[in-house]
Amino acid sequence: MTGLPNIIIILVAPETPGNVGFTARVMANFGVTHLRIAGKDLRRHEEAQRFSVNAIDILEGAEIYETLEDALNDVQNAWAATARAGRNHSVTRALVPLRELPDPLSIEGQLAIVFGRESSGLTNAEVDMCDLAFAIPTSSEYSSMNLSHAVGVTLYQLYSKYATEGVRLPTEARAATRKEKDQAAIFFDETVDDLSIKEFRKPIAKRVFRNLLGRAFMTGREVTTLTGTIRKIRDRIFEKNDAD
Question: Are residues 62 and 36 in contact, defined by beta-carbon separation less than 8 angstroms?
């Protein structure tokens, strides 16, 4: 196995045409050919064309979307690259270290890796659209990383760890879709809303559950079973509260 064929790189509102060209070039280095841009179309800019060098096909074949939500519509999993980390008590910004990212080749279907703006990265809302968020380790003296460099470091880590270990047999189990995971989260939210716990704890519980869904590789059958169980718990709580 060479390359990372199921990965899609998504750039959200890139600000520098050169970075778009360099991103296409570094993607080619690691066998990644699918590029999406959520925002302004910079493919035809002279700088983007020049810096893509021999990866011009990747650049010109990039798909353009108005929003990140649109760009993620048909992918099964999404990982966000971000430096927006909270402290230990924060559950909304629990970041996975780059070196601990799971094997993308073990995931059936497409995996989007999302990178934000050069100046400000991804917003909290954009990170929340993804299944997990990860961080690239950098020096505390200069933590800001160029967009195309961040893409390169990420793909190097995944390629060197997973893509050169030989041929993998695809799992027979179908990976859970984003829609299936979302349904499990909806039922969990409804269950939490009807529990007798302090109001400020409810969104925390919901966020933790989504973090777990995002980090775990789950089959469609597993999520369906989980969803059915949560739904029965929800219904039982509703019945009890109505009786009271």
Answer: yes
